[in-house]
Amino acid sequence: MFRQACYNHLKKMSVTYINTTPKTPVYHKPSKTIKPAKDILILIPGNPGLVDFYISYLDFIHEKFPNFEILCIGHAGFLKSKSTKTYNLEFQIDHKYDILKQMILSKNEQGIVPNFYFLHHSMGSFVYQRALSKLYKDGSLKDGFNVKFSGFITPTITDIAGSSSGQKLTTLMKWNIPIIPIALWLSFIVGFLPDFVIRTLIKYQLVTSKIGNKDIDISSYENSIEGVYKIVQSETVINQALTMAQEEMKHIAFDIDVNDWYFKNSDKLGIKNWLFFAKTDHWVNDETRDFLIDRYHDDKVTVCEICNDEENPISHSFCVTQSEQFAKITIDRIKTLCELDLD
């Protein structure tokens, strides 16, 4: 299905591409201290799966873990294109499996057994669990990699349709509301505006309207502005995001078999898990969150927490305007659970 991933040829740029079919956008940063790196931080996005939203977040983390190699793998289909083809959840799972397999084999050829530190956001956690299962079942990768840490960030790994936004989307689907054509029509209308106007409106919506009309350092928001711009300017990305969102309503249901397999085997596999939930999340129902915590939390292997910041609580879409704030939390949890010394 895929051409061999050109992992060794990633360039040191903001967003680059792996030569898969379709082409995969990634954000890659080599280790600042050890080359080739053994410790690798992998991030799997949510939906929409644009790498741009996570650049600032990963840069903040890399400052504290300079020995890590960083790789954020964008979802298939989230590039501006003339193609109308979309890629479903099964494809996204195989897509991550293939890229990670090529990375493992590349490291193994260099005499390295990589240690993976995973972060995955929203439905990215659903994709991660299933891609990892395929990696463990692949006999050619036996003893070829380790997973040291896995961060589930506002994870939608069961009953996404039961969330407040999920209920709204499901209702629209039942009523056969043409969600995608409406979104594409709005994108077409916005396309008549000059680029600088579109970017100014995005900046206002993301930053000024939330923080106030005062002088602020918005450097960490520039990547988010670029991400939103790519969405509103691309019919391909809009179609992919909404098509996949509708599929999520049907397939991320009460399937606890994969969750049970993953969390009940994590200790044996050597994985330290961290599940972070927003206090109020429009994509994760409170009952679903509490069910996952009650079923899987323990203090040694799978640590679950609900955001307790009353002043500036972390939201489901943390990567848009809360990158630095959440990076500090993430750094602390990786350091604590994996007993890493940053001093």
TrEMBL record:
Signal peptide: none annotated. GO terms for cellular component: lipid droplet. Its main location: other. InterPro entries: AB_hydrolase_fold, LDAH. It comes from the Eukaryota. The keyword Membrane applies. The chain crosses the membrane at residues 175-193. GO terms for biological process: lipid storage. One of its GO terms (molecular function) is lipase activity. Belongs to the AB hydrolase superfamily. LDAH family. This is Lipid droplet-associated hydrolase. The lineage of its organism: Eukaryota, Fungi, Dikarya, Ascomycota, Saccharomycotina.
